[in-house]
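Supplementary Methods. Inverse-folding protocol.

Structures were first reduced to a discrete structure-token string of length 280. This string, shown here, constituted the complete conditioning input.
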């Protein structure tokens, strides 16, 4: 009967556990396409996940100073911070592209940053040692053309979300992702430390945005379509992870979404894992 007394003695911890479980199960159901019916423009599953996360947030209020000593406050704050971190790491269906129109707009919103990152790549060669610049230029030569095609296709899909427009965007994002991964591997071979640092930083900026767009495209694609996209991915994200700086990626995402860095770090880790799990 210890578990019953634990529930009675620690109601907040028990409630947090239940809410986390609800949000986790809702995410699994959402990924499997189980909706349990519609609620307005959303689904019962997404509503349950949203309510669970919202209630978890309400639990995370500061303990009362008049009723809780300092040790109690510190312990409670640590527990509540852990709850909120767990909640943050749970994918939220209503912000992860389950709505095709929202995902399409988010993809288009990323394109100016993508074009800016590619422009930075174009100017980075001047910062490299003379022997390293040709290697970098050759590795990134296809970025401009591939980016321009993707931007046009994203805008076309937003204007007319047809199956053919989605197929073109799926193919192009994989093409650009493969170019970025290949460029990272080539840049990693640059011997000069400063040149390598400049090269990897510039390419990763493009790669961070490409991964964000890829995860959004993945969210509006069927399982069969995602599997087909992954089959075209010869250089996997796991192969280039050793050359990626998670802090740099988080900064890019935080600026784009105007959100706290901690939230951006969770998003980056989450989107990368989703992409890897899908076979990219």
């Amino acid at each position: 009967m210890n578990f019953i007394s634990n529930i009675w003695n620690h109601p907040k911890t028990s409630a947090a556990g239940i809410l986390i479980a609800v949000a986790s199960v809702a995410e699994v159901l959402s990924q499997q396409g189980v909706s349990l019916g519609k609620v307005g423009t959303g689904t019962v599953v997404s509503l349950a996940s949203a309510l669970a996360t919202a209630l978890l947030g309400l639990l995370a209020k500061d303990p009362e100073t008049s009723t809780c000593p300092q040790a109690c406050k510190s312990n409670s704050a640590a527990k509540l911070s852990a709850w909120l971190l767990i909640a943050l790491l749970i994918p939220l269906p209503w912000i992860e592209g389950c709505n095709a129109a929202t995902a399409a707009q988010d993809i288009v919103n990323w394109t100016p940053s993508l074009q800016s990152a590619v422009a930075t790549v174009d100017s980075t060669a001047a910062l490299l040692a003379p022997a390293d610049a040709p290697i970098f230029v050759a590795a990134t030569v296809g970025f401009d053309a591939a980016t321009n095609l993707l931007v046009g296709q994203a805008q076309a899909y937003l204007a007319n979300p047809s199956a053919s427009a989605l197929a073109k965007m799926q193919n192009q994002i994989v093409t650009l992702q493969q170019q970025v991964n290949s460029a990272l591997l080539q840049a990693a071979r640059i011997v000069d430390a400063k040149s390598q640092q400049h090269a990897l930083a510039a390419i990763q900026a493009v790669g961070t945005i490409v991964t964000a767009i890829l995860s959004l495209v993945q969210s509006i694609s069927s399982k069969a379509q995602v599997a087909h996209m992954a089959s075209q991915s010869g250089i996997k994200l796991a192969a280039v992870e050793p050359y990626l700086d998670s802090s740099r990626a988080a900064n890019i995402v935080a600026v784009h979404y105007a959100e706290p860095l901690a939230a951006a770090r969770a998003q980056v880790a989450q989107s990368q894992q989703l992409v890897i799990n899908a076979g990219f």
